[in-house]
Specification:
Helix content is 0%, strand content 41%. The protein is mainly beta and 70 residues long. It has one domain: Roll (SH3 type barrels), CATH 2.30.30.140. A hairpin with a 5-residue loop joins β2 and β3. It starts with 16 loop residues before the first strand and ends with a strand.
């Protein structure tokens, strides 16, 4: 039976979340981000590249996949 592509990741069923960067640890490629409900998350930014406070990221499974364009 084919997976429902709209339901999320076919591996873990998680969905990507938009988050805003509030703090950056560039040396370890980590950022503290907040989601829409202002909950804080530590996010790996290695894939997305350098980020700065205020940047908006698309995050899946604790990793920033990309930066969103303004």
């Amino acid at each position: 039976m084919p997976a429902d592509r709209g339901a999320g990741c076919i591996t873990c069923a998680d969905t990507a979340t938009r988050m805003r960067v509030v703090e950056v640890d560039g040396g370890r490629e980590l950022a503290v981000c907040v989601d829409e409900d202002e909950r804080r998350h530590t996010v790996d930014t290695g894939i997305a590249g350098p980020v700065a406070p205020g940047d908006r990221l698309l995050v899946h499974a604790g990793a920033a996949l990309s930066k969103e364009c303004a």
